[in-house]
Amino acid sequence: MAAAVAAAALVLGIPAPSAAGVPSPPGAAAALPVVHPASQSLTRAGDDVPVTRRVVLVTDRDTDPAAATRIAQVLSAHGATRVDTAAPGHRDASSGRDLTVLLGDASRPDIAAALRGTTEPGHAEGYAIRVTRGEHGAGAVTLAGHDAAGQFYAVQTLRGLLRQSGDDGWRISGVRVDDHPSMALRGTIEGFYGQPWTHQERLDQMDFHGDVKANTYIYAPKDDPYHRGKWREPYPADKLDELGELVRRAAANHVRFTFAVSPGESICYSDPADRAALKAKLRAMYDLGTRAFSIPLDDISYTRWNCGGDNAAYGAPGREAAAAAQVDLLNDVQRTFVATHEGVRPLQMVPTEYGDLTDTAYKRKMRASLDPAVVVMWTGTDVVPPSITNAQADAASALFGRKVFVWDNYPVNDFGNTSGRLLLAPYDKREAGLSDHLSGIVANPMNQPYASKVAVFGAASFAWNDRAYQADANWTGAMSYLAGGDRRATEALLVFGDLEHLAPTFGSTPWQSQAPRLAARVAAFWDAWDDGDRRRAVKALRAYARDIERAPAAIRGGAVQRGFVTDADDWVDATGLWGRATVSMLDALAARDRGDEDRAETLAAASRALQDRAGALRTAPARNTWGEVRPKVGDGVLDTFLVEAGVRLDLWDVADGARNLAPAGTATASSVEQDLDRFTAGKVNDGDPATRWASGYSDDAWVQIELAAPARVAAVTLAWEAACANEYRIQTSSDGTAWTTVATERPESCGNDVVRTSPGEPVRFVRMQGVERRTTWGYSIHEFGVYGAPAN
C-alpha cells in the first residue's frame, strides 16, 4: 500500500516523505509503476537503474529550459548530490559510472539512437522514455520530446518512475514509455461567481497544471469587474503586472494562459467603438505574452439589445438576431485580430445557449455563419450534466458545426444546491472515447482553489488518456498528491473526501452520491445489528468512525498542502465533531446492549451535544456567494445514522427496539410538484438520502406510508429538504380513512426531525399532514422513517 501511494505521489514530483518511502521488496523491479495521468503505453524494458550521487544531464540548445530545470530538481530531491550538464558527445570519462540522462528533441542523433525500439513521439506534446542499465551497472535515461512541451511532460512522468530502494537510495523503473495527450485542450476555466482566486493562488495553479500535464487555463472570473462589467476599461497597472507574471508562470509550465473578456451585458455589437475597445483589451494582454483568447457570451439575455443601433443592424431581439450579432463580432475578432497577430491560437467563445442539445434558430445561425476556426464551448446536456457521452458530444458538435470544447461545471460550487459543500468526489461519468468527439475539456473549479485540485487532477488525467482513466484509482492518486505521498495523510483525505462526495446538479438529483464508503458501512452495520450480531456490527463501524474522528489531526499534521487545509478548515472542524459524535453513539449502543443503561444514556447525551456543536459551525470567512452557512459533512448519511441510532436507544424497551418499517411500506401523497417523476412519493422511503418527495404548492399537502402489516409505532423521523414546514401533524390510521393526530410539530429549522409517539393500538398508515409551509414551494422530504414493531 505504501509503495503504491508513494508512486502515485512521485509522478508529480512530490518530495518523498519518510512514511511513504519504503524499500522495494524482492521482485519489485518487475512491477510497473502507477502513473497519473496514465500513459498511452508503458512497458517493462529491463532492470531498474539507481540514481547515483553524480548525474550527467545531456542537453543542447533545443532542450526545453523548463524541463531541464525540473529534471535537475527531481534528481537532487531523490539522491543526486551533483547534477552536471554536458553537451552531446562531450561527457567526461568518469560518467560511465554515473547515471546519464539525455533530454531533448526526439530528432537529436544521440537521443534517436538511445531510444532503440521505443517509438519516437509523433504527436504534439508527445514524448518517449527509455530507461536502461549499462554494462558497468550505471543507468541511462532517455527523455525524448516531440516538442518542448513533450520534453517537459517526459520529466513529469519520470517522477512517477522513481521508487525508494533501501534506507536512502532511489531507483528508476526500467521501462519504455510512448505517450501523448488524447485531447488537445486540458485544464481549467476560472469561471465561477463569487470571490475570485488571489494572485498567489493562481500562480500555484499554474505549477499544479504543469504537474498534471494540463495545458490550458482560461481566465474568466465572473466577479472580476474588468472581465465583465468594466470590460471596456483597461486593467490598472498593478493588476496588469500581476497578469503579466501569471502569463509568464503559465508559460514556464507549458500552460496556455487564455484571457477571456465577457462583454455581453453591455456591448453594442454594431458599434465600431465598442469593437475597438474589445480589441484594445485583447491587445494589452497580447503585449504581456498572451496567445489565446476567449469571448464568453454566457449568462446574458438575447431578448433585448444594449443599444438602438443593434436593432437597426440585426432586427428585433431574439434567438436568430442575437446569434447574427454575436457571429458578426466573433468573426471580426477572429479575422482582424487573432489571424493578424503572430502566434495567436483560434478564438474561443461560449454561446448563450451552452447547455443543451436542442436545435434552435440561434444554433442554426451559429453553425451556418460562425468562422470555422472559432472554438465553441459547451457544458453538456445541462449547466451541470450528470454525465457526458460520446453520442451527446457528437450531437452538440453537429448543432454547432464543429467539435465542441467542453466547459465542465465540476467541481464548481457557486450555485444554490452546493451551499455549504466542498465537492471532493472524483472526476467521473464522462465516457471513455470522448477524445474522438471533443476538442478538449476544462473543469470549472470551486472558489476554493486547493480543494479543487482533487477533481481537476482527475479531469486533466481523463483528458490526457480517457480510455485508460479509472476514477477510483485516480482519486487515490489525487489525495496522495495533496498529501505529499504521506500514507496516513492520504488515507485521512480519502475518509474526508468520502464525507464531501455529494455532487449536486441544478435539479433535485445529485450526479454523485454522498459518502458511498460510509453509507455501505452503515448499511452493513444495521444488517448485522438487526441479525443479532451486535458486537461485530459495533466493532466494524466504530473502527471507521475512529478514522473519521482522527482524520482532522492527520490532515493538519503538516503533510497535506497548506492551502488545502485552509480551504477545508471549517469542514475539517466539523468532521472531527461528527466523528467523535459517531464514536460516542456507537459506544452508547454497545453499553446498552451490555445492559449498562446509565452509561448508554451518558454516552448518547455526549453524542447529541457534539452533534449540536457540529450543527452550530458556520463557514467564516465565506469565500462563496452562499455566505456563512453550516459546513455539510456526510449529510444524509452520517446525521441520519445518528438519528436512527438515537431513536433505537431511546426506544430500546419499546416495540422491540423500534426498527424502521417504512422501507417495506408503500408511500402515497396528496400531490407531486409539477407531476415530476423525480419528486414522487416513493422517494421518501426508498432508502436513498439523495432523492426526495416534493408536494404541490399548498399548505394542506400530505405524504403517508402504508405499512406492510399493522404495527405499534414508537417514533417517526423526517429528513426535510430546505422546503420544510413551519407546522405539521403526524397522524395514524388503521384503515386510511379515520385519522388520529398523535403529534403536532413546529420545528425551529429544516433538518432531521424525530417525533416520538406512544405505541398503543396497531396502525397501518402513518401520515405527515402539512399545516403551514415555510417557503413558497411545497413540502419536500428526503426520507420518512416509521419506527416500531409489527403487531404480531
From TrEMBL:
It comes from the Bacteria. One of its GO terms (molecular function) is hexosaminidase activity. It holds the Pfam family Glyco_hydro_20b. GO terms for biological process: carbohydrate derivative metabolic process; carbohydrate metabolic process. SUPFAM superfamilies: (Trans)glycosidases (SSF51445), beta-N-acetylhexosaminidase-like domain (SSF55545), Galactose-binding domain-like (SSF49785). The keyword Nucleotide-binding does not apply. Residues 647-789 form the F5/8 type C domain. InterPro entries: FA58C, Galactose-bd-like_sf, GH, Glycosyl_Hydrolase_84, Hex-like_dom2, HEX_bac_N, O-GlcNAcase_cat. Gene3D superfamilies: Chitobiase/beta-hexosaminidase domain 2-like, Galactose-binding domain-like, Glycosidases, Hyaluronidase post-catalytic domain-like. Residues 184-467 form the GH84 domain. Coiled coil: none annotated. The active site is at residue 299. Keywords: Glycosidase, Hydrolase, Signal. Residues 1-20 form the signal peptide. Belongs to the glycosyl hydrolase 84 family. This is Hyaluronoglucosaminidase. It comes from Streptomyces wuyuanensis.
